[in-house]
Amino acid sequence: MHSQPVHAPDGLGSAHPTDAIVSIIGVLFLFLTPGLSAQGRGANPDDVGSIDGIIAAFYDVISVEAGEKPDWTRDSTLYLPGVRFVPLRRTPEGTRVANVISHAQFAASSEGFLAQGFVEREIHRVTQRFGDLAHVFSTYEYRRTLDTPVLGRGINSIHLFFDGDRWWITGATWMDESPEQPIPEEYLPQ
């Protein structure tokens, strides 16, 4: 039996029950299928069209004034689905720790320190590229506001993938500088 779709009075589509089920399944497929959900999130072409653009957006999103919140939606468009962040640190006892976290975990754990204001900016970059693969060693400094003293520096190790249309961050690892581990000269501005 073939049924004709009945258009809803507001012109938004079919009112046939099976069409609604198909639409719901389509939406769920789009948002639950790895890769497709991120591609449909509407990334700003300026953010993802070049390595310079994606690195600039990476720093822009995390830099906020006191009381502001980062645009986590914009931030999430920079990353390949399933991205992992790995902040490195040393405990007071000297144990080396790599904490593997998701984008959602990073966003949730960042709210406290970002609430007071946080500005992170790139001060030097070393980029290596082979085809659709790129690695960026991005030296950063951070402070509470643009007019306050630098609180620290470190290096972001950012892994990138070009899918033919746009760049994706596939992972990021970072480590703050310390007296025991100063940033080498080749990763500092000349």
Written overview of the protein:
The chain is an alpha+beta fold and 190 residues long. It has helices at residues 17-32, 36-39, 45-48, 51-62, 72-76, 103-114, and strands at 79-90, 96-98, 101-102, 119-130, 133-143, 152-162, 167-176. Strand 5 (133-143) and strand 6 (152-162) form a beta hairpin. The radius of gyration is 21 Å and the shape is globular. The chain starts with 16 loop residues before the first helix and ends in a 14-residue tail after the last strand.
Distance, first to last CA: 75 Å
- The residue-averaged pLDDT reads 83
For the secondary structure, the number of strands is: 7
Question: What's the tally of helices?
Answer: 6
Helix proportion: 25-40%
Strands, helices and their partners?
Elements: H1 17-32, H2 36-39, H3 45-48, H4 51-62, H5 72-76, E1 79-90, E2 96-98, E3 101-102, H6 103-114, E4 119-130, E5 133-143, E6 152-162, E7 167-176
Parallel strand pairs: 1-7
Antiparallel strand pairs: 1-2, 1-3, 4-5, 5-6, 6-7
Entry keywords:
globular; 7-stranded mixed sheet; 6 helices; disordered N terminus; alpha+beta; 190 residues; 28% helix
Summarize the structure.
By secondary structure, the chain is an alpha+beta fold. It has helices at residues 17-32, 36-39, 45-48, 51-62, 72-76, 103-114, and strands at 79-90, 96-98, 101-102, 119-130, 133-143, 152-162, 167-176.
